[in-house]
């Protein structure tokens, strides 16, 4: 746990947050600046800066927990779907450098939240990207 990390302090219960769920590994809280009603954050109690640093045992528990939360939100809030968003690095929009997963409930006719303009994948790029990434795995 890092004293200079706000999510470490929230996860440890040192800073109050609206907690939806807690166990030995995680605290799930409501986001203070919600994209939609019920927007929540899954915070591991241990400090990991991002997905690439996340312990694999902890990582294995994240998706089942997100599914549980998503199901509960659907039942409790009447959302029609939900997005999982997980930002890594400033360029990707990460503002708090403690791994977290956003669970964003989506409502029929609600605003577009996770959307991008579709580009095109050229044959040349396709080949180059596949080769370059495979070589790093
Ligand atoms: P990200 O941009 O993926 O790093 O997301 C950080 C999220 O944390 C944003 O959606 C903020 O609204 C949220 N946030 C920042 N500080 C707090 C806090 N003290 N309690 C709840 N949510 C927070
Ligand atoms: Zn932290």
List keywords for this structure.
137 residues; alpha+beta; HIT family, subunit A; five-stranded antiparallel sheet; 3 helices; 5 strands; 31% helix; globular; binds adenosine monophosphate; binds zinc ion
Task: Describe this entry's structure for a reader.
With 137 residues, the chain is of the alpha+beta class. The protein has one domain (6-136): HIT-like (HIT family, subunit A, 2-Layer Sandwich), CATH 3.30.428.10. The chain has helices spanning 6-11, 56-77, 123-136; strands spanning 19-22, 26-30, 40-44, 81-85, 101-106. The protein has a 5-stranded antiparallel sheet with strand order 1-2-3-5-4. Strand 1 (19-22) and strand 2 (26-30) form a beta hairpin. It is globular and about 50 Å long. The structure holds adenosine monophosphate and zinc ion. Zinc ion is lined by residues 2, 5, 7-8, 47, 98.
What's the Cα radius of gyration? Answer: 17 Å
Q: How do the strands line up in the largest sheet?
A: 1-2-3-5-4
The first-to-last residue Cα distance is 30 Å
Which percent range fits the helix content?
25-40%
The CATH homologous superfamily: HIT-like
Q: Which ions, cofactors or small ligands are bound in this entry?
A: adenosine monophosphate, zinc ion
What is the number of helical segments per DSSP (H or I, 4+ residues)? 3
**Total domains:** 1
Task: Assign the CATH architecture.
Answer: 2-Layer Sandwich
Strand content: 15-25%
Low-confidence stretches: none
Broad shape: globular
Rounded mean pLDDT is 97
Largest sheet, in brief, is:
5 strands, antiparallel
* Structural class by secondary-structure content: alpha+beta
């Amino acid at each position: 746990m890092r004293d200079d990390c706000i999510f470490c302090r929230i996860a440890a219960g040192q800073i109050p947050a609206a907690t939806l769920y807690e166990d030995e590994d995680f605290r799930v809280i409501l986001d203070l600046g919600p994209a939609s009603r019920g927007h929540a954050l899954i915070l591991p109690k241990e400090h990991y800066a991002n997905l690439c640093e996340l312990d694999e045992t902890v990582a294995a528990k994240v998706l089942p927990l997100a599914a549980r939360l998503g199901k509960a939100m659907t039942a409790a809030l009447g959302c029609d779907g939900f997005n999982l968003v997980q930002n890594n690095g400033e360029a990707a929009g990460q503002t708090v450098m403690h791994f977290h997963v956003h669970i964003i409930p989506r409502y029929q006719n609600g605003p577009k939240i996770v959307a991008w303009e579709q580009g095109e994948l050229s044959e040349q790029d396709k080949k180059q990207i596949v080769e370059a990434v495979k070589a790093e795995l």
